[in-house]
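Quick one before lunch.
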Amino acid sequence: MRNLNEIHKPTSIADALEFLQQPGAVALAGGTALNADKRADVRAVVDLSELGLAYIRESAGAIALGATTRLSALAESPILRALANGVLAQAAHQSATSILRNQATLAGTLISEPAAVLAVALLALDARVTVMGATTQTFALDAWLAARAEMPPSLVVEIGVPLSNPRAALCAVARTPSDKAIVCAVVAAQIENGIARDVRIALGGVGATATRAPAAEQTLRAQTFDDATIQNAARLAAQGISPRGDFRGSAEYRIEMAHVLTRRALKELAS
Ligand SMILES: Cc1cc2nc3c(=O)[nH]c(=O)nc-3n(C[C@H](O)[C@H](O)[C@H](O)COP(=O)(O)OP(=O)(O)OC[C@H]3O[C@@H](n4cnc5c(N)ncnc54)[C@H](O)[C@@H]3O)c2cc1C
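Model of the flavin-adenine dinucleotide complex:
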């Protein structure tokens, strides 16, 4: 932020939205991504820390997560540890090292790392994103991730996770335990009498944002989780992606890992 001139610290969302209307104004959450960027276009930052948006609450059939909740609070939350085998708490823990977890926030992480494990876990759990701008709107997470770049500047205020409490499993591969996952898979399903319902498979590290695996989900619908069905679903999950390679892993490696991690996560779910 080489041209930063102003720092605002509003205490109401209305004031924050007004400051964000200024040309060159951006939201500052934990600041870990923003401060690392040498963006020349940023003239003013709007610090979100006094908006009262750091909370984890159960309300009306959903868990409401405030946008500025720190990753450390998500990782340590008893509510999230009890939800869906704790995959969301695990994802927050795996998102960054302990120093960063104490600083980085939920919305900041979703925005700066939309294909990483936190976005993947939220997608598998069918999360909704509430944003405020000229109007207040709530989007399914994948719709918001896909549309965000084209949307007018807005403030993420809350992420909602339905309290349907499915079983879930998270599998990831990374170069080191503290490095960003190269590929990750989170699967979630309601399982009744050995039959899977509402199966959601989300993958990260295989595209610009966290992504679902619809063909694999379809093949698992109302099925028992036997080895052949799991193998077939994992194969379909890997067939539906076309990742780019980078220094962490080639495109071919990512496709193979999407297969392996989906299979592992489904097996864990079945057991
Ligand atoms: C040394 C280092 C190591 C890292 N390692 C990893 C890793 O292993 N895995 C990984 O996934 N990530 C990693 N990261 C990235 C890290 O996860 C992000 O820096 C962090 O999650 C950003 O969160 P923040 O709250 O600090 O966001 P900020 O830096 O404050 O903001 C990031 C972006 O989001 C916008 N924003 C923030 N909150 C809102 C809101 N409520 N509404 C609208 N816009 C908003 C900001 O304007 C900005 O554009 C690493 C970062 C660093 C610096």
